[in-house]
Amino acid sequence: MKYTIATLASHSALQILKGAKDEGFETLAIATRDKASFYKRFSFINEVIELDTYRDLFKIENKLKQRNVIIIPHGSFVAYLGEDYEKKLEVPQYGSKKVLTWEGDRLKQMKWLEESNLLLPKLYNQASSIDQLVIVKLYGAKGGSGYFLAANQEDFQKKIIKFKKEKYIIQQYLVGTPVYLQYFYSKMENRIELMGIDRRYETNVDGLSRIPYQYAKSIDMEPTYTVIGNFPIVVRESLLPEIYAMGERVVAASQKLIPGQGLYGPFCLETIITKNQKFYCIEISCRIVAGTNLFVNGSPYTDLVYNEPMSTGKRIAREIKNAIRLNRLKEILD
Ligand code: ATP
User: Does 65 share its domain with 19?
Assistant: First the structure.
């Protein structure tokens, strides 16, 4: 049977479809009309389907099913298709849908990360207990609009007025280096792979940090964290054993919490490493993250494992190809 790998034309679609083509699959980009001509520039994309809105994907599912399409979700799916898109989607997707429910619920996500023995930033249940710099995150805030920092209780009360009716969490602000760990858990090989490491380039927080101190003092501006791009990182080699162990613990905990449906495929631990070289996890993303776009041609970490360029997109396609060969495709589609 011939399979087509498809995704929404955005986020990491180029990497996903390039990888799929390299592994011998037919490739399909599902684009809105304004984006279609851009995606048609790339010869590794066999077909671009044009829709008025991404949500029209649900209207063409029958057509996609007939063509044995496998959808690869990425970081823009929730934004374009809605919070619970996975409950509606009938075309098989690569990756466990139950895991996305755990990821989408902040409390469940924390339980999972705690169960994985990861260090987490302290949570403040009430403003009166704020005793250090905190970051306040509104539910559903993206790219930092709806995030603010508060130096103390008084500062918090002054700033929260604007958001009175919304739900938020108050979290310890961790001073350290942001490090985003890109993993792949292969069900076929039963192993964790480190695909790459990055940090984000964010506007305007990275701009604010360039202002010399004598001028910064006079600026009263909240930082925002909209991701514009990513920088590659290689970490001290002595940190690598813990990085692998953290990935393994997260997968093991997911198998315990979601029996028969644990996490597999690409995922990312968003961490901050503090001055005593401890990893604190601020979030997990259970899908391909945009930081992997740095490594279309492989990363220093995939080079150690594969004697060929290996992107996360290509790794996904390789896993699907192996599953087809082993007659185990059902195990990795949901
Ligand atoms: P995502 O696309 O991953 O869902 P997001 O917009 O929800 O992103 P985060 O990645 O969680 O946002 O955080 C935005 C920024 O705030 C990042 O630069 C991150 O490093 C920083 N940040 C988040 N939580 C903390 C924290 N507890 N201490 C210090 N910095 C933090």
Answer: yes
**Interval between CA 283 and ligand 1 midpoint (Å):** 8
- The pTM of the full predicted model, rounded to 2 decimals, is 0.96
Q: Are 75 and 289 in contact (CB under 8 A)?
A: yes
Last residue of a domain, one of 135, 154, 172: 172
Reading the block at residue 113, the tokens are 């990360």
Pocket test for ligand 1, best of 10, 80, 119, 135 (most atoms within 8 A of CB): 135
Residues 196 and 255 in one domain: yes
Q: Is the CB of 272 under 6 A from ligand 1?
A: yes
- Say whether both 84 and 202 belong to one domain: no
142 lines ligand 1 (CB under 6 A): yes
Q: Which of 74, 225, 231 best tests ligand 1's pocket when mutated (most atoms within 8 Å of CB)? A: 225
The count of domains in the chain is 3
pLDDT in tens, 179-198: 999 999 999 999 999 999 99
Among 273, 235, 234, 267, residue whose Cα is nearest residue 249: 267
Three-class DSSP category at 84: coil
How remote is the CA of residue 282 from the centroid of ligand 1, in Å? 7
CATH of the domain at 157: 3.30.1490.20
16 and 316 Cβ atoms separated by less than 8 Å: yes
Q: How does strand 26-32 pair with strand 4-8?
A: parallel
pLDDT tens digits for 291-316? 999 999 999 999 999 999 999 999 99
